[in-house]
Structures are given as structure tokens and as C-alpha cells.
Amino acid sequence: MDEILYYCKILGVQPGDSAEKVKSVFREKIKECHPDKGGDVEKSKILIEAYEKLKDGVPQINRNKFKNSNQNENQNKEIFREFLSRIFAYDPHILNIINEVLRNYGSEEIDYPFKVRKYYKENQNYHSKGYEYFEQAERYFHNSMQKFNLQKARPIKYRSLELIKNLSQVQILYRSVMVKYPSFTLKCKQRLEQIQEIMDHAKMVL
What we know:
The protein is mostly helical. It has three domains: 2-54, Helix Hairpins (Orthogonal Bundle); 63-111, no CATH class; 124-203, Up-down Bundle (Methane Monooxygenase Hydroxylase, Chain G, domain 1), CATH 1.20.58. The chain contains eight helices and no strands. It has helices spanning 2-11, 19-32, 41-54, 63-88, 92-104, 114-150, 156-180, 185-203. The radius of gyration is 29 Å and the shape is elongated. The chain starts with a helix and ends with a helix. The mean pLDDT is 79.
């Protein structure tokens, strides 16, 4: 159904139009794409593809079926939105990211229920503090890696030892964030896994 509507839009025809109507419209549009007239070759290919699909006439569309399909699609979207809102309702940072994605796709944002808004207001300082500590751990991590990369003149053994020492301290910071601010657990775990891989690699040169 969606495919037929797509090709109808390309040719400018409607469901139920005859084969003669499709052929007539196609001939007019394909003239505009002719290379001798500076036409678009890619557009002509799409027109030909659409004509091949509809050259026997455009089939009628069951409007009720189409309506039900749209209703089901909207219902699925609402279910998914409710699913997201229930899981991430108490994590403002993640919910803000979700709403940003929804805005980019032109979808309605997830609204915050009164209880959730009240919770955010009461705990805004708590989440802001957690983000602040997470960012601090991130800075220490990047500084450790930058220091390692800038000391290439030193023997790799000594650089690796210092890197392992610094990253061990950074691990403590991330674990502390996880304990105090559980909403940052996933981000901290991902970074800790990366740090462990770097440390394992550094130990190989000792």
C-alpha cells in the first residue's frame, strides 16, 4: 500500500486512475527529464520505475484498511513513547536526550507528568551534582590519555606504568559516581570497560 502511494506521488496520479491516464501523465513528466533538455537522469529513472509499477493502472486502496493501518501505527508510537517515559521518567538527562531525538524527527516530545515534574524539581540539584562528578571523571580520564600521548620521548615502559597508575585513580572516580548516582551507572560501566582494555594493553609492554 505504501509503495503504491509512493509511486502515485512520483507520477502525480491517484488510486483508481486507468492505465491510459498513467501512460499520459508519464509521457508528460518524462519529457521534462530528457537529457537534451537538461533534465535530471536520476529523476527519469525513478519515473520509469514508477511507471513500470503502475502501467496497468493504479489499484484502488481500501481506505478503511489504510485508516486502520494509520491507527495501529499511531497506537504503536504511543505504546513506545509510554514505554520510554516509564523507564526513563526519573532520569532527566536521558529523557532530555530522548526528547531531543523526537524533536529531530518531528515527533511530539514526552510530557512529564505532575509527579515527575515535582520529582525533578526536588531532585534537580542531585542530578546536576551527579553530572558534575561524572564530567570530572571524564576530564581526569582524557587528561591521563593526553599526558600519555604527549610523552612519546620517554621509554614506553615508564609511560605505561604512569598511565596504569593514573587510570587506576580514574577507575575509583567512576566507581564512586556509580555508587552515589545510580542513574550514571551505564555510562560509567562503559567507560570502565574501555579503561580496563587500555590498562591490559599497557601491562603487555611491561
